[in-house]
């Protein structure tokens, strides 16, 4: 048994590589490492591990390991875990001196050599037939994370009305406050690729029950692909989870993560995947890489900005002249346009360079102001009292010309392509050579060993 205090992680530098199918090889490293966090589970631990080990041995086509993460248990759980590790091949145990499911997962996942990492609750409330569908997209390279969901239409769940209400309310809060699109944050049945965990886990601060939610929100905001598996799930009536305290901690976590995302303090750019594995980002002949995607994003942002500008102009025109209304509307919409294009069109995340980008955006704004003001001046010279609709038509034409120039300036000057400029110094800007919890990640290239199931289903003999 290995005894661990706190295991921090080394944050890998740079963006993530393109997704690839994990290679099959003859090396003996397990493909999948399943972690079971436990605290005072002396009664349930033995049957749980035996059932899980039998299922994997019979059905899983690759080498695997099971790691029992003992969260400072005070009963005989450590002795039960040690006995299971001695009796069952592929079963190991970690002893942590501090409680916290998030701390346990971070510690064991940080130390694991398996390219696919997973965890499940000790009560095995989730039907194990969902395990292979959970990890298959990670092995194939299709997805970065995978979660079981009790809240999809095809899920089959048996639990009380109270827990059902709390679960659905919590996920509605996530959707409303953090714009989460995954359906079930707290189902104890998840998996992640190790190369993703190397970069993602150092950004996750929580060490308790909110760990899952924070990990998923950050992954989703960074553009990682999360695969959902509908599960069959039966509630454990003997669960020791303190609902009120857990809900309070979760709400505090929602506030903390929401604030961090709003201020741009998280370096999510290190989690981005390179373009190329998405059909939408394939190169078009004679068009620079990424230009088609940026054009689409810029057009969407530009259309919304133009509408916003026209609404502002019409509002300001009620109490000031056309030139003043135009200048005020352009200034407000320009700040919003620069911020939207920075994040959505050119994929710049975090606060680094934000002030400089806005300053450059204001220069671009000044050019647009000159174009639109000049067009208004020409209109007023041609007609002493032009109709409001005529003003709007002239401004739309001038704005179209300014928009083309704005895109070219944004692409070439404000947000130039900096691919390949991310270096080791950038990787250390927030957490240094090690993550906030102190451990070092090793090499993530791990070959896989396909193995034959050691037992077959009796029905196959018929």
Automatic annotation (TrEMBL):
Recorded coiled-coil stretches: none
Entry keyword set: Endoplasmic reticulum, Glycosyltransferase, Membrane, Signal-anchor, Transferase, Transmembrane, Transmembrane helix
Family matches, as CDD domains: DPG_synthase
GO biological process: polysaccharide biosynthetic process; protein N-linked glycosylation
Enzyme class: transferase
Membrane protein topology class: Single-pass membrane protein; Multi-pass membrane protein
Subcellular location: Endoplasmic reticulum membrane; Membrane
Signal sequence annotation: none
Protein name per Swiss-Prot or TrEMBL: dolichyl-phosphate beta-glucosyltransferase
Lineage: Bacteria, Bacillati, Actinomycetota, Actinomycetes, Kitasatosporales
């Amino acid at each position: 048994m290995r005894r661990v205090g706190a295991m921090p992680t080394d944050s890998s530098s740079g963006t993530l590589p393109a997704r690839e199918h994990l290679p099959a090889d003859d090396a003996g490293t397990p493909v999948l490492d399943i972690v079971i966090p436990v605290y005072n589970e002396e009664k349930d631990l033995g049957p749980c591990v035996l059932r899980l080990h039998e299922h994997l041995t019979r059905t899983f086509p690759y080498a695997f390991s099971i790691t029992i993460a003992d969260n400072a248990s005070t009963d005989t759980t450590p002795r039960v875990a040690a006995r299971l590790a001695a009796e069952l091949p592929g079963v190991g145990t970690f002893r942590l001196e501090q409680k916290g499911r998030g701390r346990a997962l971070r510690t064991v996942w940080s130390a694991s050599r398996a390219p696919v990492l997973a965890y499940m609750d000790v009560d095995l409330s989730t039907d194990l037939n969902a395990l292979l569908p959970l990890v298959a997209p990670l092995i194939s390279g299709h997805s970065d994370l995978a979660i079981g969901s009790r809240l999809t239409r095809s899920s089959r769940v048996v639990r009380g009305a109270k827990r059902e209400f709390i679960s659905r309310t919590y996920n509605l809060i996530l959707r409303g406050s953090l714009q989460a699109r995954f359906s079930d944050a707290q189902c104890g049945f998840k998996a992640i690729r190790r190369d993703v965990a190397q970069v993602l886990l150092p950004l996750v601060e929580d060490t308790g029950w909110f760990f899952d939610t924070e990990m998923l929100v950050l992954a989703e905001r960074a553009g990682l692909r999360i695969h959902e598996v509908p599960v069959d799930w039966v509630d454990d009536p003997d669960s020791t989870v303190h609902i009120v305290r857990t809900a309070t901690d979760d709400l505090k976590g929602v506030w903390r993560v929401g604030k961090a995302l709003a201020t741009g303090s998280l370096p999510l750019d290190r989690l981005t995947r390179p373009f190329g594995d998405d059909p939408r980002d394939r190169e078009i002949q004679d068009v620079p890489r990424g230009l088609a995607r940026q054009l689409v994003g810029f057009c969407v942002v530009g259309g919304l900005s133009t509408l916003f500008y026209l609404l502002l102009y019409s509002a300001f025109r009620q109490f000031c002249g056309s030139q003043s209304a135009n200048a005020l509307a352009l200034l407000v919409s320009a700040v919003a346009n620069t911020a939207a294009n920075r994040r959505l069109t050119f994929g710049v995340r975090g606060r680094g360079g934000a002030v400089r980008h806005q300053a450059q955006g204001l220069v671009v704004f000044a050019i647009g102001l000159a174009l639109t003001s000049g067009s208004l001046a020409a209109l007023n010279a041609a007609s002493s009292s032009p109709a409001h609709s005529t003003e709007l038509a002239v401004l739309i034409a001038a704005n179209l010309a300014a928009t083309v120039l704005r895109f070219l300036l944004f692409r070439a000057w404000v947000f130039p392509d900096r691919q390949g400029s991310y270096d080791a110094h950038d990787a250390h800007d927030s957490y240094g050579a090690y993550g906030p919890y102190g451990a070092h990640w090793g090499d993530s290239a791990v070959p896989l060993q396909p193995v034959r199931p050691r037992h077959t289903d009796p029905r196959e003999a018929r």
